[in-house]
Design brief:
- The chain is of the alpha/beta class.
- It has 5 helices and 5 strands.
- The chain has helices spanning 20-32, 50-54, 80-87, 96-109, 134-156, and strands spanning 6-10, 38-43, 58-64, 74-78, 115-121.
- The protein has a 5-stranded mixed sheet.
- Helix 1 links the parallel strand 1 and strand 2.
Length: 157
């Protein structure tokens, strides 16, 4: 039996748009059903996620990140493009170091998922607030659509 895809949302829902990844994972779980993938609210975890990577061949990571764009811009980076995005010299996300370390550990152990992607949303506000900024809230349906298309392509390909 093929392992389910892993969908990881990083972020802190108490810091407005920083929690976009976690909120999108919950939205996907609701839209697709809890059995459609292994949905993980990673918060700000890193190495404790390694067992999840060992059990899958497909991983979609969702996080707020600086895309050098307007608030609500969406970026989807797959495979080598994800690796390159994370290798850039400047930090684009608060959780990037933890994600890079996690992926490096998976490489060392030979369990880096063959299919992997990073879906990012440009934050507009990162401050104490439990709701998303207007521009980020507005793009959540489109971000969800892009995530679903990616997951469907992996399961059908």
């Amino acid at each position: 039996m093929t392992p389910r895809a892993l969908v990881i949302g990083f972020g802190n829902v108490l810091l407005s748009d920083d929690g976009a990844g976690v909120q999108l994972v919950e939205r996907l779980r609701s839209e697709l059903g809890a059995d459609a993938a292994e949905f993980v609210d990673a918060g700000t975890l890193s190495f404790s996620l390694l067992p999840y990577l060992e059990a899958t061949h497909s991983m979609l990571v969702i996080d707020a990140a600086d895309l050098d764009g307007e608030a609500g811009a969406i970026g989807l980076f797959e495979g080598a493009a994800m690796d390159e995005f994370l290798k850039t010299s400047r930090r684009r996300t608060v959780h990037e170091v933890g994600l890079i370390d996690l992926l490096d550990m998976a490489r060392l152990l030979g369990c880096l998922p063959d299919q992997r992607a990073l879906l990012c949303i440009q934050p507009g506000r990162i401050d104490w607030c439990e709701t998303l900024s207007g521009p980020v809230a507005e793009v959540m349906p489109e971000a969800s659509r892009q995530a679903r298309v990616t997951l469907e392509r992996w399961t059908q390909g």
